[in-house]
Design brief:
The chain is 69% helix and 0% strand. The longest helix is centred in the last third of the chain and has 28 residues. The chain is mainly α. The chain contains five helices and no strands.
């Protein structure tokens, strides 16, 4: 995953992961955005995007820690990019505005999909 916007998101991911207040703000922004975006560009990755948000929430609460810091930072970076209005294609551009967000989510899923599957299995086992 390249691009200046994603590099900025990646650079900030570790500091977000270490700062509960920033992490919670990121979660709020992500939850807000998912309520207002078209799901079409995220058709294949929507369940994983939602799992990323839940994983970060569980991590923040100290309930789930079965993820490497590198993969945690990748999930956080993907969410930072997802909520950022200053990404490759601004969200305000009709039709195309969310394609780059969806691409970043897809690439993150390719990298950390096993961790997300493990997290979702953990969630299921809690019920």
């Amino acid at each position: 995953m390249q691009g200046a916007a994603f590099r900025r998101a990646t650079a900030g991911a570790e500091s977000y992961a270490k700062d509960p207040e920033r992490l919670r703000k990121l979660l709020l922004e992500a939850r807000e955005k998912i309520n207002h975006i078209p799901r079409g560009p995220f058709a294949e990755t929507w369940p994983y995007l939602m799992a990323m948000i839940r994983l970060i929430r569980a991590y923040d609460k100290g309930e789930y820690r079965d993820i490497s810091s590198e993969n945690l930072h990748l999930v956080v970076a993907a969410l930072i990019y997802f909520v950022s209005p200053f990404d490759l294609i601004p969200d305000s551009v009709p039709i195309f505005g969310h394609l780059d967000d969806a691409l970043v989510v897809r690439l993150a899923v390719k990298s950390v999909g096993v961790d997300l599957d493990t997290f979702m299995a953990w969630e299921t086992s809690k019920v």
